[in-house]
Amino acid sequence: MNKQVKGYIAAIVAAATYGMNPLFALPLYQGGMDTFSVLFFRYLVALPIICIMLHVRGRGINIGGKNILLSLVMGLLMATSSISLFASYLYMDAGIASTLLFIYPVIVALIMALFFKERITLQLALCIILTLMGIGLLYKGGAGVTLDTTGILLVMLSSLTYAIHIVAINKSNLRNIATLQVTFYVLLIGIVVFFIGTGCGRNITLPSQWWHWLCVISLAIFPTVISFLCTTVAIQNIGSTPTAILGALEPVTALIFGVTLFGEILTTRDLLGIILIIVAVTMVVAGSHITRPLTHIRKLFPRIKRH
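Given the sequence above, the corresponding C-alpha cells read:
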C-alpha cells in the first residue's frame, strides 16, 4: 500500500475510533465511576492487548534509553489530555466537549509554523477554516447558553497537550520507532498516572454492572489501542498537520452515533457542517493534486501592477 494512502486511512480510522470516547465513558460515569478510575481501567485493559500484539509481531520493548524517555513523555502528554477531556464531561455535554477539542488542528499548524518554520499555505489555511466552520455548525449550544469556564479550560488543556503529542512524535526519533513499542510506553505511564490519581488505589471505583465491563473493554480497544496505533501510523506517514486536520472527522462520528443509537435528529445545520468537514478532509487527502489546479486558477487572475 502507498505510504500516503496508508497514512490517510490510519488518520481517518484514528479519528473515528477516538470519537467513541463518550459512547463508552458516559455509561461508566452514570454507574458511579470517577474520571481516574475509568481511565485507569481503560489503559490497564489496553496494555495486555498491546503486549500480545508485540509478541505476535516478534518485537521487544527495548527501544533504547533515550527513546524510552521520549515515549514516557508522550505518555504524560496523552495522560494529561485524557484526564482533562474526560473530566470536562462532568462540566458540559460530551458532544460539546468533543467538538471544542478540535481546536487542536489549528494549534498543530501554529506550532509547526512558529517552531519548525512550516509554511501555512493558502490551501492549508482554507482547510482549517472550513474544518472550524464545520465543527462550529455541529455545535448544538442553544441561544444564550453559557458554557462552564472550568469545562472549557479542561478541553483547551486536552487540545493543547494532544497537539504537542502529535508534533513531538513527528519531530522526534519516535517517528522511526515501531508504533506498538511507542504505544506500550504511552499506556504504561498512563496507568501509573491514573493509579496515583485514584490515591494509589484507595479511591478506585469498580464498574457496577456486568455490561459496564464491556464499556471498559470497548474503551480499551477502540479509542485507545486502535486510535493510538492509527494516530502514530498516520503521523509517521503523512505528518502532523494532515493527521490533525483529518481528526475533525471525530465530531462527525459522534453525530452518527447520536442519530443511529440515541435517536438524535439530523438537522440542515448538521448536514452543512458535515459537508464542510468532508470538503476540508478531501482537500487534505488530495494534497498536491489540488495545488496545481488552484495555481492554474490563480494565474487566470494576474495581479495588477501599480505604478
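The mean pLDDT is 80. Try to locate this feature in the C-alpha cell string yourself.
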